[in-house]
Amino acid sequence: MKRFLQAAMLFGVLLAGVVVASQAQGLRSVLGTVLPYAAVAVLLVGVIYRVAGVWGRAPVPFRIPTSCGQQKALSWIKPSKLDNPSTTLGVIGRMALEVLVFRSLFRNVRTQLKPGPKLAYVGGWELWAAAMAFHWSFLLIVLRHMRYFTEPVAGFATMLAALDGFFEIGVPTLYVTNVLIVAGLGYLLLRRVFDPQLRMISLAADFFPLLLLLSIVVTGGLMRYFGHTDVASIKELAIGLITFHPVVPAGIGSLFFVHLTLVSVLLAYLPFSKLMHMPGVFLSPTRNLANNNRAERHVNPWNAPVKVHTYEEWEEEFHDKIEACGLPLDKP
Amino acid sequence: MHDSGKILAGLVVFGALVTFPVWYHAAWGGPLVKPRLPADLAEKECIAPTAYMREHHMELLNSWRAQVVRDGHRSWTGENGRQWRASLTKTCLRCHANKADFCDTCHSSAGVKPVCFDCHVDPKGKN
């Protein structure tokens, strides 16, 4: 609980600061223009530095995939092509399933001691479902937001908005992703707070991003469904940002600046946080390599050259003496 | 850097996705169009202040629909006490006569598709 309270307090101070700053008219040009630019710059530089400068420099001399099935062996043993891929195609399939549908989360098996006493391994689908609900909703929400950043509005943004608001509940229409993302993030946060084992292994850095994302979703939802804002002015601000002629139109509510500032914090925080699993999943050597250690020889590139003296060389060196003893020779 | 080809390709894709609005706008972007009103308006003031209407017009229209269609009340009192006829066609469209010049400018740039004209007729437009 201590680490949750640490994160909650840290986040509370941040949120209070942002709320106070959003009230000040003088700070609007900072929150509305300077901060978003700085945040995107930190995001780009930070991600590129960590991926190319840190992770890219780490050598991966051997194949170390986690094998979750039968390795390719003899022709009459059925190999597990996705769980223990031996080809690049299998690796692509495995990675695609991991990135798109979080297949490994389905193995969230936990051990339980049931009355009897009986030891049971219980599979859980809740973590997988919440992760799917959150990540996919988040992606769709980001794509939907492109309606603010494109003029004329990009076709996919209108299409997704129509699909998302399919049920036409209320005015403005309720987006299904908004419900799903709150449910998903809520579950992911509450499981860390209320499950004793998970609370034990959770750090402040696990709670903080969840609180940040949840507050971004809540401020966005408040603007759409309850408070309402001048959407046309917000679009003016967004187009100003991407055309590098930043403007902060008058009449935008302070809630929008809270939302925008929290998004800027998220973008700038991303390269320093666990959220780097976004590029990290592609660079996991335990998943992005084919398990072909037995079929192909992988030589460690920085091995020191070993001086060897083969039998052929030895036989040639002592050829006459061996012959004189009457011993057999490979090359007489 | 190891596997530099694959890593750089991934980073290029990442950078392109993050900066999508910038290059999309440079290639296909157009100017933002502001809503226009005709020069001769039937009324001097709107039923509610502009700032309120900008943020809440959809709620107001929705409540008008509910009171007219479900309860049969045609009368609506504005903040200054003035009585208005709760009607999109006979109140709003008297001044905001041109849907294409007024409603559609913001709605299309905000990517919003209101359902008003599923039932209502746009008097100046092609129906």
Spell out the key features of this protein.
heterodimer; A: 332 residues; mainly alpha; Fumarate Reductase Cytochrome B subunit; two-stranded antiparallel ribbon; 14 helices; 58% helix; elongated; B: 127 residues; 2 domains; 6 helices
Assembly type of the chains comes to: heterodimer
Low-confidence stretches of chain B: none
Let me know the number of strands of chain B: 2
Q: What is the rounded Rg of chain B?
A: 22 Å
Strand arrangement across the biggest beta sheet of chain A:
1-2
N→C terminal distance of chain B: 63 Å
The shape of chain B, in one word, is elongated
Largest interface chains and counts: A-B, 45 and 37 residues
For the record, give the distance between the C-alpha atoms at the N and C termini of chain A, rounded to a whole number.
80 Å
- Residue share in helices of chain A? 55-70%
User: Major sheet of chain A, described briefly?
Assistant: 2 strands, antiparallel
Protein described:
The complex is a heterodimer of chains A (332) and B (127). Chain A has 332 residues and is mainly alpha-helical. Chain A has a single domain, classed as Up-down Bundle (Fumarate Reductase Cytochrome B subunit), CATH 1.20.950.20. In chain A, 58% of the residues lie in helices and 3% in strands. Chain A has 14 helices and two strands, in the order H-H-H-E-E-H-H-H-H-H-H-H-H-H-H-H. Chain A has a two-stranded antiparallel sheet with strand order 1-2. In chain A, strand 1 and strand 2 (118-122) form a beta hairpin. The longest helix of chain A is centred in the first third of the chain and has 28 residues, at 28-55. Chain B has 127 residues and is mainly alpha-helical. Chain B folds into two domains: 1-30; 37-127, no CATH class. In chain B, 51% of the residues lie in helices and 5% in strands. Chain B contains six helices and two strands; from the N terminus they run H-H-H-E-E-H-H-H. Chain B has helices at residues 4-18, 20-28, 50-70, 88-95, 103-110, 116-119; strands spanning 75-77, 83-85. Chain B has a two-stranded antiparallel sheet. In chain B, a hairpin with a 5-residue loop joins strand 1 and strand 2. The model of chain B has no long low-confidence stretch (mean pLDDT 89). Classes of the chains: A mainly alpha (332), B mainly alpha (127). Chain A binds chain B through residues 40, 43-44, 47-48, 51-52, 56-60, 146-154, 157-158, 161-162, 168, 171-172, 228-233, 235-236, 238-239, 242-243, 251, 253, 279, 282-283, and chain B through 1-4, 7-8, 10-11, 14-15, 18, 20-22, 24-25, 28-32, 35, 51, 54-56, 58-59, 62, 106, 108-113, 115.
